[in-house]
């Protein structure tokens, strides 16, 4: 699962007029669990957690390879007209998300950096749910959470834009993949969306391109993010819509944030 983020039409491009300042851009992150794990460890997540490939959504023998409990899933897929229509249809009537502070059930980041959807997905996985409790104090992730929590989405996004430690860690990870990294200005068609179980036992879909975090339903205390119920509420629901809209064609990969096997 070492694909780069792809090419074709760029869902992460921003509309910039000739007189407007150039938007910040990241080199696309490789879709590679080892690269992702090194990055979140460098930022401060405990080495006891790691990202793992999920090779099947239905085969128990393949699902058994994933350590449990799974705190979050990161779905990687090509942006299609089906996804764009579903996104706009669902987001259209929703108000802009402007929550902040300790009352938020999840910490959500709006994506304003071009080609940063990989980093956004990793932050959404690591900074929420059970994984959040396994971040070392005074690290980049801990400091980011402390600084971001009191901010509404716009200044929170600006915080990421002006975080040199996050940018440097991302650049190092992007350069360390198995495939040659495209340029920061490349047109990318793959997108990363996180599905996270919160401390309140809800499954949240976290996508920096949406109007805000999306609560997909309640989970049992015994359910993790890879449980049958979580898959039905999240990834399977998402992929079923894509498969139907694309006439049966389906391309995706999935990684899980779960205990390390080292």
Sheet with most strands: 6 strands, antiparallel
Sequence of secondary-structure elements:
HEHEHHHHHHEEEHHE
Let me know the average pLDDT.
90
In which order are the strands of the major sheet placed?
Answer: 1-6-2-3-4-5
Summing up helix and strand content along with how strands pair, one would put the structural category as alpha+beta
Bin the helical content. Answer: 25-40%
Provide a descriptive summary of the structure in words.
33% of the residues lie in helices and 14% in strands. The chain is built from 10 helices and 6 strands, in the order αβαβααααααβββααβ. It has a 6-stranded antiparallel sheet. A hairpin with a 7-residue loop joins strand 4 (202-206) and strand 5 (214-218). Helix 1 (33-43) runs antiparallel to helix 8. Mean pLDDT is 90; it is low at 1-10 and 13-20.
Key terms for this structure?
10 helices; alpha+beta; disordered N terminus; 262 residues; 6-stranded antiparallel beta sheet
Task: Detail the topology: elements first, then pairings.
Blueprint: H1 33-43, E1 49-53, H2 60-63, E2 72-78, H3 81-91, H4 117-126, H5 129-132, H6 140-148, H7 153-161, H8 164-174, E3 190-197, E4 202-206, E5 214-218, H9 228-233, H10 235-245, E6 253-259
Antiparallel strand pairs: 1-6, 2-3, 2-6, 3-4, 4-5
Structure at a glance:
This protein has helices spanning 33-43, 60-63, 81-91, 117-126, 129-132, 140-148, 153-161, 164-174, 228-233, 235-245, and strands at 49-53, 72-78, 190-197, 202-206, 214-218, 253-259. With 262 residues, it is of the alpha+beta class.
